[in-house]
Amino acid sequence: MVDWWNHLTLTQQVFAGFGMVGTAVLILQTVMLLFGLGHDSMDSDADVDADLDDVDDIADGNGLDGLRLFTVRGFVAFFSISGWLGVFLLSTALPSFVSILLSIAGGFAAMIFVAWAFKKSLQLQDNGTLQMSNAIGRTGRVYLRIPANRQGCGKITILIQDQQRELDAVTAADQEIPVGASVRVVDVDQETLIVEPV
């Protein structure tokens, strides 16, 4: 290791130093994540981690239009990739300034990739809030009879957002809907489903 270090030029040593620090922090982050640590705190100082409102905005296609480049993860990627790329490119026949420019460009490319990957991973999160409007058009089964002409509330079981739910339901039909009958959701009134017999 010492011989390898001594054979590097001063510029290569600088890039190797950046690469070593970046790689060490990357390994530390990975180990912390494996033990459930650091996923909330690693970027908090840089105002990076989004809360659930941000996640909802991303999932809906709103907000966070740009990538968050200047994060701890972004800087770690930048220094790791540009550092080791610089060491490699400076050992080739390329002119030094070209090698340095290419290694910096590679670091920025890594930073952009990390920001993009982090944004995409946030889109996979879900806060689990039930959206009643997702029930419209779906069919369910009556669990408690539903009185006719909205004269009272019954209950149905229905699959919404990949979960079986038991929800209040009313109908505008002239006849009550008995237990076990199939119904289709035609509308939603706050927390109550409006259904019709199938």
TrEMBL record:
Regions crossing the membrane: 14-35, 70-91, 97-118
Gene3D superfamilies, alphabetized: Nucleic acid-binding proteins
InterPro entries given in the database record: NA-bd_OB-fold
Keyword Transmembrane: yes
Alphabetized UniProt keyword annotations: Membrane, Transmembrane, Transmembrane helix
Domain of life: Bacteria
Protein name: NfeD family protein
